[in-house]
């Protein structure tokens, strides 16, 4: 048995995928900051991870079967507050970089 099992490796891979996707989405949001009608995009991963963990028995790790369909996804905002705010995007970019490190 290795020190880090396949489940943990798969979960770490998904977290890196989410961080990479988040950087791309933030860059897209910044590029469209002055585009009329553009809806801000964000990446959904941590909230989905929390719900996955809540469904597991206490202390249990997710299995590879649990993670098979679990991927980060892009969500588009709508309604009030859906516009891009440069300061918010830069803050999220900094947080993502720190999280990746």
Query: What structural category characterises the helix and strand content?
Result: mainly alpha
Count helical runs: 4
Q: How does the overall form come out from the CA principal axes?
A: elongated
**Beta-strand segment tally:** 2
Helix and strand run? HEHHEH
Q: Summarize the main sheet.
A: 2 strands, antiparallel
Mean pLDDT: 82
Strand content: 5-15%
Within the largest sheet, what's the order of strands?
1-2
Helix content: 40-55%
Q: How far do the termini sit from each other?
A: 27 Å
Question: What are the segments in which pLDDT stays under 50 over at least 5 consecutive residues?
Answer: none
Q: Which descriptors apply to this entry?
A:
mainly alpha, 101 residues, two-stranded antiparallel sheet, elongated, 4 helices
